Amino acid sequence: MRPARMALAAALGLALATGAAAQGGMGGGMGGGGMGGGGMGGGRGMWQGIVTKLCPADIEKHCATVPAAGQRDCLAGKIKELSEPCLTAVESTAADRGPGTGPVASLCMTEIAKFCPEVEHVQGQVRRCLTQHKAELAQPCVVALENTGPAWAR
Predict the structure, then answer these.
(1) Which parts of the chain are beta strand (E)?
(2) Whole-structure pTM over 0.85, yes or no?
């Protein structure tokens, strides 16, 4: 992830993680592929939806013969060749590296700064704010919101 993105994501993520933890935790441990276990905390199904929706051309170009469950890892191996939306999707769905690195924080950072600058970052309030502005959000942010649960709002 680019340094500027990481700094903003980290600043937003700590507060977002507090809200996610208050809503039931951050996921069920480390599951296959280094992702959160299951339920609302993450898992392959959630990141797979994000990558599939934001990377169709990249999947077709680089990973068409790879089964769906392996496409994110395939794309990660081609990181320098990916389109910008796909690169962001792949980076934001990587193994959990702590607060501020999840899909919503990464894919919605511009929208959070624009629509929710005064919103307190606790108990899912930023996620609710983004949902209220859904019609105005960029497609990658909408995809992240629709394909993650509250615990991913980090």
Answers:
(1) none
(2) no
Q: What is the DSSP string of 54-94?
A: H-HHHHHHH-TTS-GGGHHHHHHTTGGGS-HHHHHHHHHTS
What distances in angstroms separate CA 6 from CA 28, 39, 85, 100, one per listed residue? 24, 26, 16, 8
The per-residue pLDDT for range 34-69, each reduced to its tens digit, is 333 333 334 455 677 889 899 999 999 999 999 888
What is the Cα–Cα distance from 38 to 14, expressed in whole angstroms?
Answer: 21
Q: How far apart are CA 17 and CA 35, in angstroms?
A: 16
Are 36 and 43 a contacting pair, CB within 8 Å? Answer: yes
Instruction: Answer for the pair 105, 14: CB distance below 8 angstroms, yes or no.
Output: no
C-alpha to C-alpha distance for 60 and 99, rounded to whole angstroms = 32
